[in-house]
Specification:
332 residues, alpha+beta, Alpha-lytic protease prodomain-like, Alpha-Beta Plaits, 2 domains, 4 strands
Length: 332
């Protein structure tokens, strides 16, 4: 048996899943329809706010402007993310999705901060509010945002775990909650004259926005820091792979996420002298694909007795800069 082995890589799902490019026009059409709804209502809300002198409606219109920006960015990012690898971008542009999701998350957090400041100011010095106009426009806003959210949610379901589209849906849902809270506040103002209800509703919405923004920003940060995909424990993965027949040791294990539904993994595998390294590599890749859904895999395989390797896998000749612990088959 030839003891010389080599690195093997397979990526059945690396950025070019079957059907993914074909879904883009449908996804883009749904997002474009949602964008048209948001823009049309935003213009009407600005007019209503100016005619009624309602700062609350103008503020909601400003929030809807961020929704429109998020939708526009999502349409752009969805198109860019499907581009194939080119030049120095050897992984393609899948992480544009995370960039967009992070931008949406940060925007939500900043908007929440502004809402808190404005709500506190209104609690201290409540302005006069035309409750009837606020209630009517808010009710229409609930309907428009519900429709836009439904369209964006359908688009998100076509694109798996997209941070980009999760951010868009989060923006629209937050605006939907804001309109619902504004409607409730408007009813209270009409029936009781208590204008501080508007500020309290804004504080509730700000809390929801902060939590959603933090989750989006944190998820994007995990991708940029190349953390393991959610639900994948690198230690457990290493132990499981070390149990595959023919594996003497597995180390330098790295697993990370390229983009929505695109996980990647690499490792250095020492194969038992009596086993064929290509056959062991094939079994490892099959387990990774079928058990963990990881299709982009790069394995460096060597026989355990090459150049005297054995248990001393962290020898300087063997791995110049090893990362993580070595995983060996379970005893017995």
């Amino acid at each position: 048996m030839n003891s010389l082995c080599h690195s093997e890589s397979v990526s059945p799902g690396h950025g070019h899943e079957q059907g993914r490019p074909a879904a883009a026009p449908t996804r883009g059409g749904l997002l474009s329809a949602a964008l048209a709804l948001v823009l049309a209502f935003m213009i009407g809300e600005v007019v209503a706010g100016l005619l009624s002198g309602s700062l609350a409606l103008l503020s909601d219109a400003g929030h809807m402007l961020t929704d429109a920006a998020a939708l526009g960015l999502a349409i752009f990012a969805a198109r860019v993310a499907t581009r194939p690898p080119k030049g120095p971008y050897t992984y393609g542009f899948a992480r544009v999705d995370a960039l967009s999701g992070q931008a949406n998350g940060i925007t939500l957090i900043l908007l929440a901060l502004w809402f808190v400041i404005e709500a506190v100011r209104r609690l201290v010095d409540p302005p006069a509010v035309n409750g009837a106009v606020v209630t009517g426009v808010a009710l229409a806003g609930v309907a428009v945002n519900a429709a836009a959210t439904a369209l964006a949610t359908r688009a998100a379901r076509q694109d798996g775990d997209s941070l980009n589209l999760r951010g868009v849906v989060a923006h629209l849902l937050t605006d939907l909650y804001a309109f619902a809270a504004t409607f409730a506040a408007g009813v209270i103002v009409v029936t009781t004259g208590w204008s501080r209800a508007d500020a309290i509703a804004s504080l509730v919405v700000a809390v929801v926005m902060s939590w959603t923004g933090w989750r989006l920003t944190h998820a994007a940060g995990r991708i940029f820091l190349e953390a393991a995909p959610t639900g994948v424990d690198p230690q457990g993965l290493g132990k499981d792979l070390a149990g595959v027949g023919g594996v003497a040791e597995l180390h330098d294990l790295h697993v990370w996420q390229l983009g929505p539904g695109q996980a990647a993994m690499s490792a250095h595998v020492l194969v038992e002298p009596a086993d064929d390294c290509h056959d062991v590599s094939r079994r490892l890749r099959e387990r990774l694909l079928h058990r963990y859904g990881i299709g982009h895999v790069t394995l460096q395989t060597d026989h355990a007795d090459d150049r005297g390797y054995g248990g001393a896998s962290h020898d300087a000749e063997h791995c110049v800069d090893p990362h993580g612990e070595a995983h060996v088959p379970p005893s017995g």
